[in-house]
Amino acid sequence: MAEIASTYPVPDSCDFTVFGGTGDLALRKLLPALYQRDLEGQLPADTRVLGVSRSELDDEGWREEVRTALRTHVAAGDLDEAVVARFLGRLRHLVLDAREPEDWHRFHALLKDRPHAETTVRVFYLAVAPSLFGDLSTRLEEIGVVDERARVVLEKPIGHDLASAQAVNDAVGRVFEESQIFRIDHYLGKESVQNLLVTRFANAFLEPLWNSRWVDHVQITVAESLGVGERGPYYDNAGALRDMVQNHLLQLLCLVAMEPPTHIGRETVRDEKLKVLQALKPMTPVDIDQHTVRGRYAAGLVEGEPVPSYADDLGRTGLDGARSRTETFVAMKTEVQNWRWSGVPFYLRTGKRMDRRASEIVVVFKAPPHHMFPGSEGVSEPNRLHIQVQPDEGMRLHLTAKEPGPGGIRLRPVSLDLSYATAFAQRLPDAYERLLMDVIKGNPTLFMRRDEVEAAWTWVEPILNRWASSPDQPLRYPAGTSGPVAATTLLERDGRSWQESDQ
């Protein structure tokens, strides 16, 4: 990783523009992340952060909004008043209506009105609706601010199906080279996800076991205890399959299943991830009916508090929840059809209003081929590597050990734990902190390439189409549970069960 970092130096100057600068993503994630990097001295000394929105704010008005956001979303111990003042001094706000040419002229003037404008790296973060990606890119080209030092960041979702994803990619690709386009998935910036690559490829003992001979199955879970909240209008047009499976879960699957690249470099990791997506077993209508489960949360209890149903949550945003057929839960079984993984099931699960907030990967190894302790007591369980992505990043390796004491052998499951919070005496950066710095430096390794996005949509689209043509409604599950019973049955049919984080 150090070699990669050295090939992407921090530039001398940067203009980091956030379209949607007063939105939730900017205030909750992007600006606190940039502040943290400023606190660590990693931002280029000559950095400006430009907020673009339709809010009638001057520079000072936006700075006050950002100051409030920092107090809310940054730990008190990380708020250094001198650095806060320096960071706020970097901020400029521009009121921009995309339909007004004069506003674009003022934006052009703002970018050009700085020392060393001709050598400044320009980052355009499009924290807006994907339908605007193409138009904004075209406008940037028209005012002459897209050159070899320009980079554009696209938030998910990239389209809502294959055709729309291709249209978005075409529109942005007409303006920016593929090497300048950074499609962000914040899961790829998490410490435990990156450490998965190190665990696999920097430890010789594990790689020989990472195949169908020794691995029984793999589980990937992204569970949320929250409901849709204020995202109802967006979420009801997306659903869990588009919102989570097509990007987050498939990206995690790729990192688990990919072949070793020649080195961790600009394109090598993305090349191997693409091969995994292309090797996913296509889902026929029969496969979809048998190996996928979709659900929707009903009213229930989360952490002892009553919470409303999905329909009621939609009603609060002005939508008719009773008519919706949108899923808030997905479970499915798939397979990577190549020599390494042939015959190994991959079980994916994601949902809202579940009994816990957790993102995790569990690699379950096969049981020993021969039971050597016939007179023993206790339980011998298959070995498991449990990778916790959030909220507490770390790893646990589950083994079987002998319980101390005389009088025979008593088997007992134990675990070797690696908690990043306790193993490393330093603060763990938020995923956006790492990814935003990679954009500034021009390192695309942890971002999705166009062919990855479109390969993922190619695999997901038959599922979307089958569900759309089915008269069946998503199965109901009470909020605060682990999802529909059918999701449990999906694994029980194969003689397996979901591995929960406390097991």
UniProtKB/TrEMBL annotation:
Residues 18-195 form the Glucose-6-phosphate dehydrogenase NAD-binding domain. The keyword Oxidoreductase applies. One of its GO terms (biological process) is pentose-phosphate shunt, oxidative branch. One of its GO terms (molecular function) is NADP binding. Pathway: Carbohydrate degradation; pentose phosphate pathway; D-ribulose 5-phosphate from D-glucose 6-phosphate (oxidative stage): step 1/3. Its EC number is 1.1.1.49. One of its GO terms (cellular component) is cytosol. NADP(+) binds at residues 54, 156. The active site is at residue 248. Pfam families: G6PD_C, G6PD_N. Keywords: Carbohydrate metabolism, Glucose metabolism, NADP, Oxidoreductase. Residues 197-499 form the Glucose-6-phosphate dehydrogenase C-terminal domain. Substrate binds at residues 186, 190, 224, 243, 352. It catalyses: D-glucose 6-phosphate + NADP(+) = 6-phospho-D-glucono-1,5-lactone + NADPH + H(+). Coiled coil: none annotated. HAMAP family: G6PD (MF_00966). Belongs to the glucose-6-phosphate dehydrogenase family. Catalyzes the oxidation of glucose 6-phosphate to 6-phosphogluconolactone. This is Glucose-6-phosphate 1-dehydrogenase. It comes from Nocardioides panaciterrulae. The gene is zwf.
